[in-house]
Amino acid sequence: MSALQFVKEYVKQPRTVGAVLPSSKVLARQMVESIDFDEVRSIAEFGPGTGVFTEEILRRKKDGTVLMLIEENREFCDLLHDRYGERDDVVVIHGSAEDVRVHMKTCGIRQLDAVVSGLPFASLPNAVSHAILRVTNQVLAPGGVFVTFQYSMMKKALFERYFAGMEWQRVWWNVPPAYVLAARPMK
């Protein structure tokens, strides 16, 4: 997908796309730093968009680890399906992260070891943000990790309501610069 097509999707759906350009590879590397790829067996990616974080996850994950991609934007979902649909270890789902429990059941996954989120929580309706974070906290395995990025720390308190031990890192090499936040489920 070209940058122009990405911008077109942003213009059509700014609340769910959330960025004018795809994330940088530097941001993608930072997004997966807190995942112990030797231990995880199931990963969900919320809002994978064009697959920048997906590529980094696939580069690092072990054989046998299932990656579930949940994308609400139809254009992005079709792109992801074309790119990864033939893989046995990747499941592409057109749907909402709010329904992650249903998607997990369909895939035969009991708990998630990691959730990587590209969702624009700053522009999502408040009720949707709470619903996604609540269910994410519930489906993460003990010791699991939730990782997201945001362009400001405006929603940090919201994340802290659902997750413990939050760590953050500023990534300057992205347009715009972003914060990566990683935390554990609050059980």
From TrEMBL:
Keywords: Methyltransferase, RNA-binding, S-adenosyl-L-methionine, Transferase. InterPro entries: KsgA/Erm, SAM-dependent_MTases_sf. The keyword S-adenosyl-L-methionine applies. One of its GO terms (molecular function) is RNA binding. GO terms for biological process: methylation. Pfam families: RrnaAD. It comes from the Bacteria. SUPFAM superfamilies: S-adenosyl-L-methionine-dependent methyltransferases. Gene3D superfamilies: Vaccinia Virus protein VP39. The keyword S-adenosyl-L-methionine applies. This is SAM-dependent methyltransferase.
